[in-house]
Amino acid sequence: MSDSLRALVIDDSGATRLRIKSILEKCGFGIIWNSMTGIESIAKCKVLNPQLVVINVPDMMGVETIKRILARDNTVKIIILGRPGQESYIGEAMLTGSTAYLMEPFKDEDVANMVWNIFQ
To answer: CB within 8 A of 82, min separation 6: which ones?
Structure first.
């Protein structure tokens, strides 16, 4: 993959953001930003123009964030991270046009394989 690939990781957990950032770096992403909130991430998308967004979708705000990101650029690939109990939000997010989802707990190689499949 190219160093010009840009990603945005959206999660309220700093540990999860760092973990996903590390995985994406190994997959060849050159620029990776992170965000704690949906509102902040929408603003960052305008500046970064990422090809990939990895987002935790715990509630309707996460779904709304995805809708706003895709309304601005419908070519962005979106991977949803979710936990048991969040299935309805994940389903709603998938219906908005998200690319794929992973349920926690997941392995680093699960994320990497998903990214490789999306961008090959």
So the answer is: 56, 57, 58, 89, 90, 101, 102, 103, 104
Which residues pair with residue 39 across a beta bridge?
Answer: none
pLDDT in tens, 64-85: 999 999 999 999 999 999 999 9
Q: Cβ neighbours of residue 99 under 8 Å, at least 6 residues apart?
A: 77, 78, 79, 118
CA angle (108 as vertex; 98, 19 as ends), nearest 5 = 85
As a whole number of angstroms, the distance between CA 75 and CA 24 comes to 19
HSE, CB side, 13 Å, CA atoms: give it for residue 36.
4
* For residue 35, pLDDT beyond 80: yes
Tokens of 79: 């991977």
Model confidence, pTM = 0.94
